[in-house]
């Protein structure tokens, strides 16, 4: 009887230890994350930021999928996350359209969708709990406003002589490509002499940026301004401009987007003129949103990132502290 008493006491102690451990150990959440690919320095910084923030959090486990710039890969990845019954799906849309069906499937499986950077089309956003990232229209407007001031300050624009502008667009159908083009035109419409004579998809990559710029210059060696939807394409275009025997940053005014280190170096070297910041370091915000979700908090539909712009007046001072 005495022995049984001891056994029961031990079992009771073990049960207390187990339940205390259960309370102390946070429940693990599985996060399915599907990224666009690795088309730019910006994208690499974004992927690392999100991956590090998730893997450094002991309460989260990440299942990662690199879509390698193909929407079908991303749709497949989301379906596999649904089958695996992950707790939350984190993703960046390669292009805006074509995700409605798979997002509806996630909704039916009660798996919340948290988006970072690029959204899906407006009509599919009701499947999405929240999106965090940049205001791409505002970025395009900032580029237009910067150009207007630069042309005026340097006595280049008299308001009537045509200004010959080339545009390197991002991936056709991607939110930043659509919105940056729109934002820039919102400003250009107030300058009737600005002529966007060349506009083509450079797929956000350096190699495409170079190739398309070569073609632009062959057709029109008198281009005065290049507006590139990201720095990666601008950096490729700078090569093409040099190879054509022209001086980037002087013969052609170069405006990019992202504020990656390579573009800062080009500005400091006088080979580019301006970059509009688009912050890729979204990991901490994404993890915060997941924690808020777990805690039952209501997330805002949009979480904006605060960003700056850089040119010859401030790029050199900011370069040493740039993280990407
Ligand atoms: O969606 C953000 C954009 O995508 C960045 O400007 C670009 O570099 C990336 O490819």
Please tell me about this protein's structure.
By secondary structure, the chain is an alpha/beta fold. The longest helix is centred in the N-terminal third of the chain and has 23 residues, at 2-24. It has helices at 2-24, 41-55, 71-83, 100-108, 136-153, 175-188, 206-219, 231-243, 261-268, 283-294, 315-318; strands at 29-35, 60-66, 88-91, 113-116, 130-133, 163-169, 194-201, 225-228, 253-258, 274-277, 302-304, 309-311. Helix 2 (41-55) packs parallel to helix 10, helix 3 packs parallel to helix 4 and helix 5 (136-153) runs parallel beside helix 6. The chain has two domains: 28-133 and 280-306, Rossmann fold (3-Layer(aba) Sandwich); 136-278, 3-Layer(aba) Sandwich (Rossmann fold). The strands form two sheets. The protein has a six-stranded parallel sheet with strand order 2-1-3-4-5-11, with helices on both faces. Strands 7-6-8-9-10-12 form a six-stranded mixed sheet, sandwiched between helices. The model has no long low-confidence stretch (mean pLDDT 94). Bound molecules: alpha-L-arabinofuranose (AHR). Residues 39-40, 42-43, 117-118, 176, 204, 230, 232, 257-258, 278 line the site of alpha-L-arabinofuranose.
